[in-house]
Write a structure and sequence with these properties.
The structure holds 2 protein chains of 2 kinds. In chain A, about 0% of the residues lie in helices and about 55% in strands. Chain A has no helices and 11 strands. Chain B is mainly beta. The chains are: A mainly beta, B mainly beta.
């Protein structure tokens, strides 16, 4: 069965500090991978998606970047965090044979 | 521009009764719709989906209805249980896009369902 991991689960960072959130998927090959953010009182906003190693598409201009160094690894980064980067970050995957996206447990990021 | 709208931020229903969560969309290219359930501090879990070739899809206590002419879908939960208390997100996609390489979903803002005893 497929599983998706995210870490850390929670993170408190000062403004201006760097960020690295990691997502890994097990039990599937060549998944589509996605990063979403849920800000307080808002829905899920798609930030990045990837259809393969090294292939990243950005949905919204922002202070963040994403990378996919391996087939089942997706990383969300920032060089300098802003207060507005606070939120709940979710990684998701979709396999080639399914129509649904499956989400990881999320990372709660608080920027102070 | 919010292409998928859930106009009710919250809903309270008594246990055993029907819960009806609504979702409206504006993009006529959307032809595949999904509902997700989310507990606090957890990732959303997939509940049920429907493609535009159907107007109803049922899975146990959950039924999704699609009215394409009104660009409206709804999720019915019968009977409602306390464990159903969560935030429910509606999501939409274009199936061609969804089964293609991008597979992007557009989410609504969610409705918080509270099932009371």
């Amino acid at each position: 069965s497929q599983t998706i991991h995210q870490w850390p689960a929670t993170l408190v960072q000062p403004v201006g500090s760097p960020l690295s959130l990691e997502c890994t998927v097990e039990g599937t090959s060549n998944p589509n991978l996605y990063w979403y953010r849920q800000a307080a009182g808002r829905g899920l906003q798609l930030l990045f998606y990837s259809v393969g190693i090294g292939q990243i598409s950005s949905e919204v201009p922002q202070n963040l970047s994403a990378s996919r160094p391996q087939d089942r690894q997706f990383i969300l980064s920032s060089k300098k965090l802003l207060l507005s980067d606070s939120g709940f970050y979710l990684c998701a995957w979709r396999g080639v044979s399914s129509n649904e996206q499956f989400f990881g447990p999320g990372t709660r990021l608080t920027v102070l | 521009d919010q292409q998928v709208k859930q106009n009710s931020p919250s809903l309270s229903v008594q246990e055993g009764r029907i819960s009806i969560l609504n979702c409206d969309y504006t993009n006529s290219m959307f032809d595949y719709f999904l509902w997700y359930k989310k507990y606090p501090a957890e990732g959303p879990t997939f509940l049920i989906s429907i493609s535009s070739i159907k107007d109803k899809n049922e899975d146990g206590r959950f039924t999704v209805f699609l009215n394409k002419s009104a660009k409206h879908l709804s999720l019915h939960i019968v009977p409602s249980q306390p464990g159903d208390s969560a935030v429910y997100f509606c999501a939409a996609s274009n199936l061609l896009d969804f089964t293609g390489t991008a597979s992007k979903l557009t989410f609504g803002t969610g409705t918080r369902l509270q099932v009371t005893l």
